[in-house]
Design goal:
Blueprint: H1 2-10, H2 13-32, H3 38-59, H4 62-82, H5 84-95, H6 111-126, E1 131-135, H7 142-145, E2 149-154, H8 157-163, E3 174-178, E4 181-187, H9 203-214, E5 218-222, E6 229-233, E7 236-241, H10 243-254
Helix pairs in contact: 3-4, 6-8, 6-10
């Protein structure tokens, strides 16, 4: 406690401004990389550097500290080269009009969004129309968004059915959902590294599983041949889902309730209408 009081007594306006500027620079760098997979890589590098620096300072290893300080500049150059695409994309995002208005965190996937996805998948499955819907979570999917056509629209069953209607310009590829918005369609996804043995699992299913192998996203796949609805997560796929099961799974995965059980909304739930009175008025 005494050390903290002594440290606070040494702080003046210049020191506080210095700390704030460093914090702003670090926050700005993380924001530039937000929405890409480079965030996890940068966090790992920072965490490893802090551990190594702490070991060297505590143990008083002079030669080791010299090696770390000498290699820090080389490491910074290597990181800049590795993250060059993400840095360029972040700077472009910063230069766009209204870019500063997107500093808020990622939106939560709402119940009505999940229900709309479930309804769209059921109707597409009934008509044997293939679909691939990817729901973004913590790992940003901006790299894959830029491979498709940006849309930025509300998530509705009608829009999803229109996108995946056969022979349309956007039906071949994946739709990426971020929060309550469809951000892009016709996106190209990486194929699964593991070989899928089932003959019914073609390129669409391999892409749906592949994106979950590299990110924490959740993908929903509707088979064009069989009409089977599947859900992929962490490189694993669950098949033969109906609308009810799909909605329940998505609510469980996207809206966990650690403090207790939560109310699951049925896909066919609609606002309750007031009962008419005897004279026919509501």
């Amino acid at each position: 406690m005494a050390n903290v009081i002594w440290l606070l007594s040494k702080l003046d306006l210049r020191n506080v401004l210095d700390i704030l500027l460093v914090a702003v620079v670090i926050y700005g760098a993380l924001w530039l990389l937000r929405g890409t997979q480079a965030v996890q890589l940068l966090r790992g590098v920072i965490f490893l550097a802090l551990i190594i620096a702490s070991i060297g300072s505590i143990a008083g290893l002079t030669a080791f500290n010299w090696l770390i300080s000498s290699g820090a500049q080389v490491l910074a150059v290597v990181v800049a080269v590795v993250l060059q695409p993400e840095l360029r994309r972040g700077l472009e995002r910063l230069g766009r009009a209204g870019g500063l208005g997107r500093l808020t965190g990622r939106e939560q996937v709402l119940d009505h969004v999940i229900i709309e996805i479930g309804t769209a998948c059921r109707r597409l499955a009934e008509r044997r129309q293939g679909a691939l819907i990817v729901i973004e979570r913590e790992t940003g999917l901006q790299d894959y968004v830029e491979t498709g056509v940006e849309i930025d629209s509300q998530v509705t069953s009608e829009i999803l059915q229109t996108i995946f209607f056969p022979n349309t310009a956007l039906h071949d590829g994946a739709v990426i959902v971020r929060g309550a918005r469809i951000v892009a369609a016709a996106c190209v996804l990486p194929l699964a590294e593991t070989i899928v043995s089932d003959a019914h699992l073609g390129t669409r299913h391999r892409a749906g599983v592949g994106i979950t192998e590299q990110t924490d996203a959740i993908s929903v796949i509707v088979s064009e041949e069989t009409g089977i609805i599947s859900l992929a997560r962490n490189g694993r796929i669950v098949r033969h889902l109906d609308e009810q099961a799909l909605v329940v799974l998505l609510q469980h995965l996207l809206q966990p309730e650690p403090t207790g059980s939560r109310r699951l909304i049925r896909p066919d739930a609609r606002p309750r209408q007031p009962k008419p009175t005897r004279n026919g008025k509501s």
